[in-house]
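Duplicate of #3305? Posting structure anyway:
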């Protein structure tokens, strides 16, 4: 029996800067997870992922990441995604310092 589909966001890394980016409902990319489009339909998720993968001039490594809807937007359900949204951990400055 297949597992039920859980909410997802499309995420990737920006090609030039390397920052984690998320696909928004209006087809733009944001570095803020709270602006990401929460996808609840498996077929729609596959279409959005294909849309992202065609943007090789802007990003690399697009994939679907599990999230849970929250009051402030999508929240990661896996520690890897929580870690990715904070940025590199080998610098004492940047996004991870503010969290």
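Output from current build:
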């Amino acid at each position: 029996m297949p597992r039920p589909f859980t909410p997802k966001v499309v995420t990737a890394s920006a090609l030039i800067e390397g920052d984690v980016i998320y696909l928004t409902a209006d087809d733009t990319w944001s570095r803020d997870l709270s602006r990401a489009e929460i996808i609840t339909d498996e077929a729609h998720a596959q279409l959005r992922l294909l849309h992202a993968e065609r943007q090789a001039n802007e990003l690399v490594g697009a994939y679907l990441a599990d999230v849970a809807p929250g009051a402030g937007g999508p929240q990661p359900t896996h520690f890897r995604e929580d870690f990715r949204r904070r940025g590199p951990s080998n610098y004492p400055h940047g996004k991870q310092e503010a969290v």
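Confirmed duplicate; merging threads. The mean pLDDT is 88. Residues 8-93 form one domain.
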